[in-house]
């Protein structure tokens, strides 16, 4: 393209190649807005990176020179990005306790709390050994909670009595009977103690009946623990005896060697007497 007449230019008469336009003119206005917003630090729309790079590779300034595609070009072509890169603002579930007006951690997942969490903390703090009780967490269809009726008490079909039973029973009493938390906790806790005593009596009676007809159960947990403790005590006793013998031998050896290096010989005595006479 030749410059129009009447235009002052020292390059007047030279032919200008249409392909020598700036790269930004080759992109549509939407790409231009994307670049401007990206330069400003605010990404307000999905970045059309792949389309922009494709157009720049197809419209080369110097046709005789081959432009090398970026290393991520093929990967981005096979796995395109999502339609939007803007994350939705998380719903604020808790009131902010800070005095600053500027919100922080808008996109950070907030801590989810339930009504049962505090009740579980109180129960297991008062009964720490309940955490050592074996529990079965396997469910058949995931709807076992629908078959539980906590108005009847702690015994539920298909569920073993545990600390979770106390928590659910306490929460039912609080929500349906209007009892305060402490009173509902006392009621559920006493029911838990009573059922635990019943189970212990049933196990004891069943064990006695089985032994009466000739069954043999072997050692219980207390007997096994006592045997292990006795074994460790005997090991420590042997080690202590060997240490006492070693200490006594070292002490007697030190007394036996005391003063031997300081005794004077006959030659030393004669030399001292000769020196005194002179």
From TrEMBL:
A Pfam family per the record: MRP-S25
Subcellular localization: Mitochondrion
InterPro entries: mS23_dom (IPR059242), Ribosomal_mS23_fun (IPR016939)
GO molecular function, one term: structural constituent of ribosome
Keywords: Mitochondrion, Ribonucleoprotein, Ribosomal protein
Main localization category: mitochondrion
Gene Ontology CC terms: mitochondrial small ribosomal subunit
Family, as annotated: Belongs to the mitochondrion-specific ribosomal protein mS23 family.
Name the UniProt record assigns to this protein: Small ribosomal subunit protein mS23
